[in-house]
């Protein structure tokens, strides 16, 4: 009996263990250093969709995969990722990152994959990716990037995939992709690119997949190379869908595929520049603006610069309107607007000299000189000279050309006074005429029937304002109650009902027992 009880206990214990085994297996192992609310197992830490604003502390140093997606992280605090030197995969997509500090990933030399998709990044600097020499995949899609500067990805020589789709990239500088000799996939689709240079893609010696679709391409002479390159051998990098590079400009080529447009149709118009005047004299201390108008296709980029002066002479500070000032007469170029404004403040002798306005596009460039002369004899900042004190009893002396009344001659003073008097009499006469007309209108008898209010409710005849009693409703609106018990036309002579036709309504003096309220809108 004892042996049977012992065997039954073992059987029940085994059944209980079998029932609890799936629950135990479903629970992930938890290490002692796991951040609160996160899940940690093996070398992976999951902290996604927890409404985090910063990277949580307490992540195990041996973590190789870190999930931080779908949070509200807006900034990577300096040193927040420093202890995670073993990190291989970092997922920060769908957060609120708006910028990356210099050396943000310096402590992750083993990182292979970095996901920054769906953030709010507006610009990138190459220093942000320092230390990522082993990175293979970089996701930057779905941000707000508008311009890729030179050498942005220089510190990632082993990068194989670069995803930049669904941004607002308008400009890809010639050296923006420098250093990406191992890149196999480049996705630039669904951006705002109007053109791309051959030099920009030249560093991509290992490129196998290129995506350029859904951009507003400007099909001019600057894009002639791309069509030829795709037809000659570049089509191996493009799928059948990616070959549909559609033109958005000029209007005559809109919605046409670049591969279907002949090379002779891809034209540019060299720029022409106009500056008026070509020479100007300014006084010391004044501010000066000079416009440079440029035309051409595509729209030229306008740049002002000051021609260097011989050594030993002071250099002026030149600034383009809306741009930062530069020393030595070098002014930064405006954006591609076709017009640049030279803006000089507090002019000194150093501003005098020769300037050049240059306009450039894919069709060529053009320059126009401009010379500024500075008048050293006048200075706006000098205070006006004090007037000498005049002795008592003497009239003040006025300068020649003064507009003061006392400085005018007797004949001129008389003419001015007569003109003022004539204007006053004319205004008085017009006022008198207007008042007389208003009085006549008030005294004139009203024509018969004027003032009668005809209410056509298809059952009663006309009535007058004499029958209306003014009331106000609960909200203070004026109301009129038609009292039909009063005579319709009390002053009119009585008529017999037989003299009236049925269509003329009831006879005068008819009393109606009911009252009807109407709201009058004037």
From TrEMBL:
A Pfam family recorded for this sequence: LRR_8
UniProt keyword Amino-acid biosynthesis, yes or no: no
Membrane-spanning intervals of the chain: 415-435
Membrane topology per record: Single-pass membrane protein
PROSITE patterns in the record: IG_LIKE, LRR
UniProt keyword terms in alphabetical order: Disulfide bond, Glycoprotein, Immunoglobulin domain, Leucine-rich repeat, Membrane, Repeat, Signal, Transmembrane, Transmembrane helix
Matching InterPro entries: Cys-rich_flank_reg_C, Ig-like_dom, Ig-like_dom_sf, Ig-like_fold, Ig_sub, Ig_sub2, Leu-rich_rpt, Leu-rich_rpt_typical-subtyp
Subcellular location(s) per record: Membrane
Any one Gene Ontology cellular component term annotated for this protein: membrane
Region (Disordered) residue spans: 491-510
Signal peptide: 1-33
One GO-annotated biological process of the protein: positive regulation of synapse assembly
Keyword Disulfide bond: yes
Residue span, Ig-like domain: 271-375
Annotated SMART domains: IG, IGc2, LRR_TYP, LRRCT, LRRNT
Main location: membrane
Descriptive protein name: Leucine-rich repeat-containing protein 24
